Amino acid sequence: MVEEETWEEDGTGDKEFVEEVSEAAEYSSKSDFSKAQVVCTQMERCCSIRSEEMRSGFSTHVVDKIGNIKLVHVPDSRKKFMGAVDTMMNLLMPEIRRKGHEKYSSMIGDFREAKEDIKNKYLYKERRMMTNESGTILGFTGREYMPEIGDIIVSGLKPISKGVMGESRIEGAWDSKVNAYYNELLENYDILFAELNCLIDELNYFKQSMGF
Fold this sequence. Notes:
Number of helices: 5
Oligomer: single chain
Number of domains: 2
Shape: flat
Helix content: 25-40%
Strand order of the largest sheet: 1-2
């Protein structure tokens, strides 16, 4: 609903204010808010990120001009792209759920199911050293999560002194699975991005004035 201000003659030569309510469609040309422009900007961001090499994030040490060592983190470009596509999907959710676009709503459901399946495929099931009637074992805690690159993972047990066992912790032990997870997930995000572009085209957001 958009409020418009108009003025009418009151019969005395003066003008009085009359408030009217317009039933114009959303995102009208008179509105200060342009949904198409917002979507356009986000799509350009997705294209810009995806045009770069997709690689995992990492941390490195650099030395500045006066010899100080600083830790610098380079973000994962795959995560940046997937986050940008998620934002675009959320922007378009009203259009996705609109009558006549059921195929896109179904596609989003399939995407989310595939995303969950991929996650379950590579999840790390946390293990910790425990003691039971059989002695010291490496047991599951019940926690499942996706580690970050370089995280220290308990990989087994090792003797730390005579008759005493301890946890064997390895930095980056799950890195290959983490990378496989994001690489497989990236393929699904590429498909999602392509489908969202088809939706935008159907919505006629591709207009000459928008620069497409």
